[in-house]
Amino acid sequence: MGGDVRRLELVATATALLMVIAACASGTQEAEPTTLPTLALLIETPVPPSSADSSPCSRSEGSSCEFDYDNFDNPTMIDNSFSPMTPGTQLVFEGTTNEDNELLQHRVIITVTDLTKVIDGIETVVSWDLDFSEGELVEAELAFFAQDNDGNVWRMGEHPEEYEDGEIVDAPTWLAGINGAKAGISMLGDPLEGSLSYSQGWAPEVEFIDRGRVQQVGQETCTIVDCFTNVLIISEFNVEEVGAAQLKYFAPGVGNVRVGWNGNDETQEELELVSVIQLDQGELIDVRTAALELEANAYEISPTVYALTEPATATG
Questions:
Q1: Single pTM value for the model
Q2: How many separate domains does the chain show?
Q3: What is the pLDDT of residues 120-140, one digit of tens each?
Q4: Domain that residue 21 falls in
Q5: Would you list the DSSP string of 116-162?
Q6: Which residues contact 145 (CB under 8 A, 6 or more apart)?
């Protein structure tokens, strides 16, 4: 019963914060939207990786992305140009997804908290993400990131909770170092077009075996926020879903600005950045509180994974 109460409180907290976010966004000066051809239409369906390209982490010769525990001198200072993570930064995306041949309104809010958490011996930055479909919260997630000395940003794990009608229906938690799960690359320090694919995390027990590949560099795209140049496009895919890919567009100094799809991707998710917000201290504390509520729930519903870790701590 206590877990149900906390989940309903989480939904209420997320809804309240969404109202705050909307108020903040309304005061943000926005660029005039510019219509450009969708780059997703210009990119070929990714070729399934060969056996030589299917290890948990592989790149071209001389560009290793093997996880080195001794290569993290300041892991919470995430200043990778294509994936900066400053506490209080909030990215808001809007778009659509396809469910049973029906396009549904989709809104995603990604907030870099002022929390850190040790995962597999590495201190990580905690991201708190909310996913809304037709205005209803369908997923809340804590995700954990660390940057190595070479500028690679690693995804160290995640705790997603999926909801239907306010009730939790699934929580495929994975954390590096537990149950055979391994960290993966979230963003390369030196993304090179034509390099081999790389693991974005390895947790087969919860069917997380996603991979990424640099699809294109030096591109352009516009959203309602701005027009961006030198855009990096990453193709994300699962080797068990041949011919389907999600395309993510990253702009220098901002991060992810657009999401597209290619091939036979069933969800056909399309999102674009509609707001970039830097939360004030009070708003950041509210986010921290909500993220810690989600963590409290994670300890309860994930006794064999999340409960094996030490609690997240605030830096502010």
A1: 0.83
A2: 1
A3: 999 999 999 999 999 999 999
A4: 2-309
A5: EEEETTEEEEEEEEEEEETTEEEEEEEEEEEE-TTSPEEEEEEEEEE
A6: 78, 85, 124, 125, 127, 153, 154, 155, 156, 186
